Amino acid sequence: MVSLDELYAKSHFITYHVVITEATKGMINKDAIAKMKKGVRLINCARGGIMVEADIKETLLNGQVAGFACDVYSKEPATESIFFGMENVIATPHIAASTKDAQITVARQAAEQIADYLLTGRKDPRHQRRQSLTRSGLIHGQGKALSVKFINK
Question: 68-98: buried (b, 16+ CB within 10 Å) or exposed (e) per residue?
């Protein structure tokens, strides 16, 4: 494993896939970019809040960053962005949960969480909850105390 500074210094492409926390908020900024190879290409597939958009735009204009791609923005849905129209930027809408399958997955997870809480009174980590509900048959609507049925239309 290498340090973040070493990764920045050696990488031609850097993709971000992190949750937003106090530690990651604004992590893509001009100080971090200054440690990167000239001409680096950045891809943010995490959260808009991990980047300082003005810093990225500035470094795109001065050539430190050769290209930038993102589907997340500081304000979503993004109807406007400082990146829109830039030649060296690929900006797409953030649609991860917008597909039918994603909506079904989110609905199923919410139902599982509610069922687990109603049955046990506690919030288990996702893998434990899924295992306990599957073993009891509740996920498939076979439980006696509580029936959970998923309908895909």
Answer: bbbbbbeeeebeebbbeebeebebeebeeee
Please identify which of the residues 41, 58, 94, 130 carries the catalytic annotation.
94
Residue carrying the six token digits 């919030």: 123
Residue whose entry in the numeric block shows the structure tokens 């808009």: 48
| CA triple 87-81-58, angle to 5 deg | 60
CB of 74 closer than 8 Å to CB of 54: no
Say whether 135 is catalytic: no
Whether 151 has a pLDDT exceeding 60, the answer reads no
Give CA torsion, residues 39, 18, 24, 14, to 10 deg.
Answer: -10
Query: Among 12, 76, 126, 140, which one carries the catalytic annotation?
Result: 76
Instruction: Read off the pTM.
Output: 0.64
* Selection from 97, 31, 81 nearest residue 59 by Cα: 31
- Confidence check: pLDDT of 44 > 80: yes
DSSP at 49: G
